Amino acid sequence: xxxxxxxxxxxxxxxxLTATRPKVMLPVANRPMIEHLICAVRDAxxxxxxxxxxxxxxxxxxxxxxxxxxxxxxxxxVQRTQSGTGDALRSAxxxxxxxxxxxxxxxxxxxxxxxxxxASPAPAVGxxxxxxxxxxxVITETGGKVTGIYExxxxxxxxxxxxxxxxxxxxxxxEVDRLVPSPRGEYELTDALEPAITRNELHAVPLTSWCDIxxxxxxxxxxxxxxxxMVTDIRGEVEDGVTLKGAVVLAEGSVIRxxxxxxxxxxxxxxxxxxxxxxxxxxxxxxxxxxIGHASELKNSVIFPRTKIPHFTYIGDSVVGSxxxxxxxTKVANLRHDKEHVKVGGVxxxxxxxxxxxxxxxxxxxxxxxxxxxxxxxxxxxxxxxVVSGMIAxxxxxxxx
Length: 401
Prior knowledge:
This is Bifunctional protein GlmU. InterPro entries: Bifunctiontional_GlmU_arc-type, GlmU-like, GMPPB_C, NTP_transferase_dom, Nucleotide-diphossugar_trans, Trimer_LpxA-like_sf. Residues 262-361 form the Mannose-1-phosphate guanyltransferase C-terminal domain. This protein is of the alpha/beta class. Helix content is 14%, strand content 31%. β4, α2 (57-64) and β5 form a beta-alpha-beta unit. The protein is globular.
């Protein structure tokens, strides 16, 4: 059996983080999210992959190559225009024979759940209960057989959703070839499942470990899950006077300077300098080659590589892109005064605490204030003493520089 991974899309809902990288290459625990998926599929016993690529495909190809480093074999097929999941699967036609696994590349699931799907009769779809079913394709089932799929209904008929993991025989390609564009102009894979639903042949396989990454704030949840069973692994330098509480991972070439206090779980990449006198609170992940300076505090945040957060800065419950530079004294708010769920661009995060989404290569002057729920595009320049709120477009210039 082989696995087809769909990784061609841009992931517009993940903007501004996907302005410079494909969605599946966004980091979870300092590794691309699709790397976690490839490893889980491998551990479930499948070592042959076809990855359907498109948007910024070179980054995926350069990182994974032929898969040898992971003990798998990878081939690539290109979806030139992102015309839906059915069209993406059609890109792999001719390379797939017999039974195969199909998965969206923007989720995380365990090897055990993958094994359970593979043990089902085909065709099968993984399903999971959701607190926000209106955001997904909702599935109804009776006796383990799917009776209907309802795409992003405002009044969903239940809370069981399509998790984006399928087991097919190669006869699915005949159904895909018969697809016509949906009302939104895409070839929908779920439309190709209707004949199997009508014949009462589509199996629903419950999952226990699924994590969807559809919006920037989902990266906080995905990283929290990834750190939940982490154990301490110190490979860098820890100076005298540092306090480590809970599980902390420190990669090679990094140093934690005296007076720093870290509450795990916390993961720090390679080539970082932390401190002196830094306070890092739990569920924080810091990428490679970052600097966190004197008297700064980080809480429950994901910091991408090569970002500099110098002295007297606070960042909480936020996602920060790569190559950013924070002026001294910059603060990110993470709680509304009315304690309601934070919204980003009018979309609820479902979180009472969320700070900001900050794209790559953003430069802040000193003493900036970033309001709760801000989204700051890539290559933005923010002058000293500037208050930043709302949605900021790529390459904007704010305040007096």
